[in-house]
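Worked problem 6 (solution included).
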Amino acid sequence: MKDADISRRWLAAMRRGDFESAWQQTDRIEIPRRRAQRSADFRRQPHHLVWNGKPLRGKDVLIKCDHGLGDSIQFLRYCPLVKQLARSVHVEVQPALLDLVDGMEGIDHLHNAWSTRAEPWRGIEVECMELAYVFRHALRTLPNTVPYLPAERLLKLRPPLGIEWPKQPKVGLVWASSDWNRERSLSPGDFAPLKVVRDVAFFSFQQGRPASEMESFSFPVIPISSLTKNIADAAVGLLSMDLLITVDCMMAHLAGALARPAWVLLKHEADWRWMEQRDDSPWYPTLRLFRQPRDGDWKTPVSQIASLLKELGI
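Solution. The predicted structure is:
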């Protein structure tokens, strides 16, 4: 069976929440790959994982974060579980996450993933997104206790944002994901149904080029983007929010990992981690999902959010 066929089967299984079948598909690539890599002419391909299949128990384990920031935040939840098995746990994260992750349970040594190691690693290596596969977790056994990021430590070490918070309920907004998948993003105009919501203070956490679109909103939004460029500062800001409304991006994972309430707007064919036909997330108990009923239809989920905001008085 070709790797592309295996990937399609894996994706379909993950979207169904049938993790057991997904791991069987991964085995079709990984077990033969582990045998092949013993040969001198083996060359790692993009679909190959990092873990060599050896048990973690009693070993020095290096958890690498080689994907996106949201991916790292989602799967670093496994550090305490790895620590229960390993002799020591080393974690390499992107520089942007160092301040956020520092002090997290289960990490013995935290490293900058962009720095060159002085010596080759001689223990077990595993990429963080492999860890659900390593533990062979099923939907019912996913580790979803939150928060798992050191929220209390952040509040003690990070300076306050210097904002005089209003008395009304505070709702954060993120409307644009990264440019590599623009179908996940909205425009400020797509949020027009929210203008009927009263007695709520909206705050923009949006970063990057879309942050300049603030003036296009049809209702008042308070910009705090300049105060939350550092992800640890964004985490501190989230801890002051009553709710975050966000697209599928790093901020959704940050809110979930901090156990903050967040409503996530998803495109019609959403990423596998959000599965299908669910309005909740088994990964993050405090998240609620709002899906496009058809490609390009943001009006429906945003209108649902507006109605709920009015009904709940958030």
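Discussion: Strands lie at 60-64, 88-93, 109-112, 124-127, 170-174, 201-204, 222-223, 243-247, 262-266, 287-291.
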